[in-house]
Amino acid sequence: MNSNSYWRDNLRLIGICLIVWFTCSYGFGVLLVDELNRIQFAGFKLGFWFAQQGSIYVFLVLIFFYAHRMASIDKKHDVDED
Amino acid sequence: MDLQTLTYLVVGATFALYIAIAFKSKARSTGDFYVAGKNVHPIANGMATAADWMSAASFLSMAGLIAFLGYDGSVYLMGWTGGYVLLALLLAPYLRKFGKFTVPEFIGDRYYSQTARVVAVICLIVISFTYVAGQMRGVGIVFSRFLSIPIELGLIVGMAIVFLYAVLGGMKGITYTQVAQYCVLIFAYTLPAVFISFQVTGNPIPQLAFGSEVAPGVSLLEKLDQIVTDLGFAEYTSGTKSTIDVFFITLALMVGTAGLPHVLVRFFTVPKVRDARASAAWALLFIAVLYTTAPSVGALARLNLTTTIQRSPVGTENANMVYAERPEWFRTWEDTGLLRVNDLNNDGKVQYYNDTDPDFAPRAKAMGWKGNELTVDRDIIVLANPEIAGLPDWVIAFVAAGGIAAALSTAAGLLLVISAAVSHDLAKSVFARSLSDRAELRVGRISAGVAILLAGYLGYNPPGFVAQVVALAFGLAAASLFPAILLGIFSMRVNREGAIAGMLTGLLFTMGYIVYFKGIFIEPLAENIAANWLFGISPEGIGAVGMILNFTVSLIVSAATKKPPEGVRVMVQSIRVPRSN
Q1: Domains in chain B: ranges and CATH
Q2: In 3-state terms, what secondary structure has residue B389?
Q3: Which residues of B touch A26 (CB under 8 A)?
Q4: ipTM exceeds 0.90
């Protein structure tokens, strides 16, 4: 049944996105913030920049990426709404 | 024209706009009333979601909160945006495919249980009412501060406006007013930010000004770090909260965001599953405009305020502001009570420093300082910005209209999910299954009206705990609704018993922990300090632990009880794919 392979593709994509989501916010912005703060980035300490700016940009790109990729996965498995 | 007349004009014009939209988009069916006929363009829905989500607190208080918390303020920035990733990937598309009207309805259907549905309704009502009381309060405060009318009158005007478009137009009405409100609030927020950025750093884009130089070779943040640490405050870019606490607060706010019913229901209103995903992306884009500007405003304002008082390095001659020579905006805000000076050492100058820092105390003593003399209300950061930047009066009038737009749009969204829960999830499904569409619409309108009155009352007579329950609202959403919805989509095995046990565990644990330290209705049972907290996690972050408990209990109880009926399997299969063959 094609809905099973569709669901597997979806779960894989979700997994990848969530790894990036976690790494850039909880990773760079919280857990590794002191290490990254030793690096200067465009007038910011890098860890601080991730916590107050970078993570938000990453979230934004992630959702657009997911929406875009899912649209083609929908098509590939012939479950799109058109 | 004086400022007050101008403010009346601008605020009045925005109100006229909202009311005009309300009349144009009157709800004619329950479908219109609950989910705007499922006919909202994803970009419009994104904008409406952004206005729905950004409350009086985001607009008025967040930049100020960050200005005084520094790095610790990151929990709000990441927490209140990262939840949209969870929404877009894990919840929104499937709830849209489910295709009915409310969040409790999904939980009731997926877990084949009226009890589960009623538990979800209880969570929803507690979450939404705590939130809405704060919004109405915000409306009243903006009215009284900018239009000099009593808070009560401001509240009544605000209630009347929300009443008009929420009761008449339902979801359809609030969606299109929220689009207008987003435009008003984002304009009002970014304009002063652009001017202040330009004045301080020469770069007009706040997100870039944040990293710019304020003197040759010295960046804004370096200067800020140096100035505040000189006065005994914590370094701006480091903060004071423990790592585990920052982690759990961020998690609770993120997951809470994804579990808030008034945000979730917005994704029921778009035509297609694909639109639900796109809509979440647009929503975050519109939110990010404010959320990436706020930390920059916070840092710039902290620098402005500190250097207004402390004009040159600590200890140099004439370093402190002479009270009699304070700037004009300083006087204006003293009149409102948001800025207060108390000249403790009677030297006619103002000292602003951290008088609780033991390392700084000897220096302060040597200079004849007898304690911090300046008290600043955080809300001033956004409110006073246009005046500090010397912007024209019409900008200040827009900031007032923006604050009211932020509060009204969120209040309307919350009131609508409350009324939908009452008319659709309780009246129609529990008490009177034979209710006709028209009668249900009437019940919906009446309960929206009652909810507004109640919210207005709570806004006027805020129970002592309103400030403390923000943590409760997010914590409860994270610990109760989010896991139940997520498991309902991603697991076939989780059953009625598991979901109900999980929701109740999450709800009671989170509520219990918060009451234990913050004392809602009762006196706190323990002092709210890090040494007493479980694993060092503050009540603000405990919702994340409640969520983990909910997941664990749901999975264990489900494994020990019998599988859900075959119909549930079919339902889950169908919500997982956009178009079933």
Answers
A1: 3-303+387-576 (1.20.1730.10)
A2: coil
A3: 247, 250-251
A4: yes
